[in-house]
Amino acid sequence: MSEDILQRQKKLQDYLNRTPFADFIGFKCEIMGDEMTAILPFEEKIIGNPSIRALHGGATGAFLELTAMAQLFLLSDEVSLAKPINLTIDYLRQAKAENLYARATVTKQGRRIANVHAEAWQSERARPVATLSAHFLLGDGE
Amino acid sequence: MTENPDFFDLIRQYAPNIINKVPYANTLGFELVDLEPGKAVARAPYKPETIGDIETGIIHGGVVTALLDNVSGVSVIAALSEMKSTATLDLRIDYMRPAEVGRDIIAEAECYHMTRTVAFTRAWAYHESRDRVIATASGSFALNTIKGFPTNTGEGS
Predict the structure, then answer these.
(1) CA-CA distance, A72 to B77, in Å (whole number)?
(2) How many helices (H) and strands (E) does chain B have?
(3) What pLDDT was estimated at residue A65?
(4) A15, A18, A24, A60: which to substitute to probe chain B, counting the most B Cβ within 10 Å?
(5) What's the rounded Cα separation, in Å, for the pair B142 and B72?
(6) Greatest mean pLDDT range, B14-23, B114-123, B143-152
(7) Residues near B81 by Cβ (< 8 Å), separated by ≥ 6?
(8) Torsion, Cα of A13, A36, B53, A18 (10° steps)
(9) Which residues are paired to B121 by β-bridges?
C-alpha cells in the first residue's frame, strides 16, 4: 500500500458519496485505520418478508457486496471500485428488522483479480446472519 | 413440476403479492411478468437512485442480486404442490456483462429440482433474451411446512 491510509479513507468516502445505490440502501461505514465496519441502519423499505419482519435477502446480499467492494478499495491503489465477477451469499440466519453490520477481509489480491470474504451480523458478532465470498476484477480493463 | 394444478391456481393468485407486498422489492420497483409451474419472470426498472457508478450510470450489481434472489424464490413457490415457507440457503451469482444504461432488467428463474426440504434454482438476468445475459444465478432454498395454512389467501375474496 503506497498511498497514505488517510488519503485512501477520504477517497473511499468520496467514492461512496458518488454511488447513488449506496445512499439508496443507506450504506454507512466506520473506518478505523485500514479496517472498516459497514452499517446498514434498519429501514422499513429493506424488509423482505412483512409477516415475519425479516430483511430481504437481496438487501443483505447487496450490503455484503458493497462492504466487500469498499474494503477492497480501502486496501488497494485502484482509482475506481472493483467490478464483481461472481459472488456467493450464504444465508445462515433470518435477518431481523434491526441494524445490520458487516466486515470484509481481502483473502487474496492479485494483479487482476481479488478474492474477498465478508460477514454480516446483527446483535451478536459471533452469530452471523449471512456471509459472502466473491471475486472482483481490478482495474479499468475489460 | 407441480402435480397439483388447483394448488398452482392458488399460487398464481397469490404470487404477485410475493413481489408487490415485499417492501424491498417495491422500493426497487420490481414486478412479476410471468408465472408458470416452477418458473417465474420478473422485471426491474432502470432507476437513477440505484446507479452504482455515477460516471457510467450503470445500475449497481446489488439490484441484480436482489432481483435474481426474488425471482428465484418465486420460482420455488411456483413449483410447490402444497404450501411451504421458503428461505434462501445460498445464492451464487456470476456477472457476465454490465447492464445497459437506461434499460429495464428482466430476470427469469426455474426451480429444476425439489426434495421435501430443499429446492434448487437457476436464473438469468438480461435485457432482451438469454442469448445475451447480464448475470446468471444458482440458488438453493430451504422448505418448511406451514401448519394450518388457509386455502384462502385472504386477499379481498
Answers:
(1) 37
(2) 3, 8
(3) 95
(4) A24
(5) 12
(6) B114-123
(7) B2, B3, B4, B7
(8) -20
(9) B111, B139
Q: Scan for cell 461512496, then name that residue.
A: A16
Distance CA A140, CA B122 (A): 30
The cell numbers describing B91, all together, are 445464492
> What's the order of all strands across the beta sheet hosting A83-91?
A28-32, A35-40, A100-109, A113-121, A130-137, A83-91, B84-95, B133-145, B118-126, B105-114, B39-44, B31-36
What whole-number distance in Å separates Cα of residue A60 and Cα of residue A98? 12
Extract the residue ranges of chain A whose pLDDT is less than 70. Answer: 1-3, 140-142
Contacts of B24 in chain A (CB under 8 A): 45-48, 55-56, 58-59
d(CA B147, CA B151): 12
Q: Which residue has the cell 413481489?
A: B19
